[in-house]
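Hi everyone, sorry if this is the wrong subforum. Our group has a chain we'd like a structural model of before ordering constructs, and none of us has done structure prediction before. Sequence below.
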Amino acid sequence: MRPKVLIPVAAVVVAAGIAAWMANGSFTTIAAGPSAVGDFMPEEIERILQHSPLGPPPSDPTNAVADQPAAATLGQAVFYDPRFSKTGKSSCASCHDPRRGLGDGKAMPDGFPVDRNVPTLWNVAYGRWFFWDGRSDSLWSQALKPLENPRELGGSRQALVHLIRNDARLRPMYEAVFGAMPEPEATTVDRVFANVGKSIEAYERRLLSRRAPFDVFVEGLRSGDPTKLDALSTSAQRGLKIFVGKGNCRLCHSGPGFTDGEFHNLGIPPARGGPTPFRYDAIPELMKDPFNGKGDYSDDREAGTRKLDYLVHLPDSWGQVKTPGLRNVAKTGPYMHQGQFKTLAEVVDFYSRLQGVLQAGHHERTILLPLFLDVAEMAALVNFLESLTDESIDPALLRPPE
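Answer:
Right subforum, don't worry. Here is the predicted structure as tokens:
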């Protein structure tokens, strides 16, 4: 989690102790030690305050209906409707299951020939790039790809338009947002398809997690309220100190969303297949996507163009994957782009020792050095990550709309 230029090597880990801790799965057995609140240095408190509160999602100028409730209701209906898949048995919610942290709880999906872990949809509205490799520049254009991908839902835009046009429930919902359903011509099919993606974005922008115990603790730091300071256990506070201190986890997991929104190659061994280009191949794919932010279906092509004009296709992007946010991370395992690690304990152990890390090649950047955390420090860091859990949400958003 630390860049080479910043990392002082910590204590050496006893391998047997780590194995016992990871196998135990219970962190209450680790001695908590004295309260860490008084141990925070002023610069650490300043860093902590940068992680909370999480404000409202940024706007998406390429989607004029991104924050319209009627569009969100249509998108929610499509999200849970299996009729948009080729088999008629799978929907977006099949992989982004509300019961499994808006993921699927698996390393890689069962029943789909997909070689990447399903990302959670919690707080997806804050993203700048989408998919592990960032091959979409908006949430609405991302939503379109699984609908047609033969390795996922495998439907078609023609069948989608036909279904909405002839469905007594969906057509009025569509027309309430986008106006009268156009005649079924090739150009209008693409327009309706894009509009459905925009409605799915409007729904997914409402899947927000913004007030975890950590946020309450930060409120306590700001106000001095001792009750709010008690929102984090002593162990979680010690983990927070590591996160913003010697671990420097915030280098990539920055800001209130705990992500820089960018791409890095960590040298994690693949769980299936060999090393892949990821971001390197995704940039050309994004630039030629007709549904990108500068394309004909964007509601603000100028804004989309400004965003895409910053992209540079460099060899250094080979093998890079997007930094995930950490809110609700305790509920969204397995972890990494192919689900290589089942538990947070395994993730922390990897960053502590970097055992098995691949050597850099193809111009990837190596940004890590081992932390050598001891057992108590690793347990504390996991306890802190667990304090980022807040799944409170209107349950009506986690099922088909009534």
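For your construct planning: Confidence is low (pLDDT under 50) at residues 1-21, 25-36. Residues 69-209 form a domain with the Cytochrome Bc1 Complex; Chain D, domain 2 fold (CATH 1.10.760.10).
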